[in-house]
Write a structure and sequence with these properties.
single chain; 82 residues
Length: 82
């Protein structure tokens, strides 16, 4: 059940990040991976900044989407440099 939860939260967060960062057109699998990795990045960033937003699936989606947006932002910086 935990794996299914992670995949669903990752898919939602990856989709949100993809749409907010100008719809890069990534597929479902990339969005899921982006959302899962974004969850780790977002949780780490929120802890370092001392931001607490509670617990539950909505806060997991917010943290994951924020981390995925950070990842897409840095990918965009490197992509523009070429």
């Amino acid at each position: 059940m935990d794996i299914l939860y992670i995949i669903i939260v990752g898919a939602i967060a990856g989709y949100i990040a993809d749409v907010l960062m100008r719809d890069n057109g990534f597929g479902l699998i990339v969005n899921i991976i982006l959302g899962i990795v974004g969850g780790f990045v977002g949780t780490w960033a929120f802890n370092k900044l001392g931001i607490t937003i509670g617990s539950g699936w909505i806060s997991d989606i917010i943290r994951s989407a924020a981390g995925a947006i950070l990842i897409l932002f840095f990918v965009g910086l490197f992509r523009r440099g070429r």
